[in-house]
## 1
Amino acid sequence: DSGVTQTPKHLITATGQRVTLRCSPRSGDLSVYWYQQSLDQGLQFLIQYYNGEERAKGNILERFSAQQFPDLHSELNLSSLELGDSALYFCASSIRQVAAGNTIYFGEGSWLTVV
Amino acid sequence: DAKTTQPTSMDCAEGRAANLPCNHSTISGNEYVYWYRQIHSQGPQYIIHGLKNNETNEMASLIITEDRKSSTLILPHATLRDTAVYYCIVRTGGAGGTSYGKLTFGQGTILTVHP
């Protein structure tokens, strides 16, 4: 158990809908990362927050948004869903923003299926 | 972040050591070498990381060459449960830049442990 908690574990929704994925980082971790993994793609970095502020952006679509709240949990909002958004979404956390010597730990992911 | 090159797949007999190579010839002085693994559709699991010196923990050993251009992850006594995709990642540390410490995943090495 990495200590990173993601909910829901599985979600099935229809095209055009909106969903919210939730992540609770490990206790004491200030930085949260979101990744997407679809069948035909590897692990793609989406976005990173540190202590409530956006710090780095990757291949995140405009239909997607995220935020980190004062209690440090984070939410990833996916809207106008398309079939191609079906994927595993992982949240990860680390204690600091930078300093490569600190480790990033991943949650078990949220399976999103768009039908 | 520096790119890494790993073999697409490797096999190992149960009980034997698994040696997974990684080339990172463009690594710079402040970049750490990280190893993660992903067992089918689970969250990536941290294994080990290092900067210059060889490292060992309860899961594995990491051997980094003196010029830091390559490394080897060693699983000393592979079991069937070690069958997974293994990712070698180099990660920038320090303030500044745009990576802010995120992990960039490549395709990894599919390790299959046989009975």
## 2
Amino acid sequence: QTVVTQEPSFSVSPGGTVTLTCGLSSGSVSTSYYPSWYQQTPGQAPRTLIYSTTTRSSGVPDRFSGSILGNKAALTITGAQAEDESDYYCVLYMGSGIWVFGGGTKLTVL
Amino acid sequence: QVQLVQSGAEVEKPGASVKVSCKASGYTFTSYGISWVRRAPGQGLEWMGWISGYNGNTHYAQTLQGRVTMTTDTSTSTAYMELRSLRSDDTAVYYCARNLGSGHLDYWGQGTLVTVPS
């Protein structure tokens, strides 16, 4: 079974840039996987940041951007702010209507 | 405005079943699907499945096949997720979300805590 991989944790300084990635245990992520990114802070429902690789969801600040970097999907935060400290999840479309989340990345802003 | 309101917290015994509801308002229910996602304590998000608001077609996560059933009642704009043969590792917050396609879940319910004591 293919596993979706993410960095367990990452840290960034306020105002800095960080790139989180989303890969596959076997194979490369492409736009055909429609990689999407969600943010979840404790006690809150998740929020969609990016869908279909690069499309920013309504109301999401433009410091969040999505891309394909090499064989992975990537979420870049440019000019990180304190409120960006959160858990970030990618999800990939595996075909036949099935989606699979990665394990999530805990981002610390300090 | 679009809202998804979920049913309240549940405590169920191992082996029992639970049915969580998700009542939609503010949009045409049959125009979009509903996805279900859960998060167990100390774990990440898990995609559970999707149901069409139009015709009730479903897709379920392979790990839950045979234990989960998603349904809709278009007369009340409500989606349901039933999970059977509950185990302690089914303890989680369960979320419904409106699915616009291509991974875009734009509105989410508030979450429903289901507890299955071990």
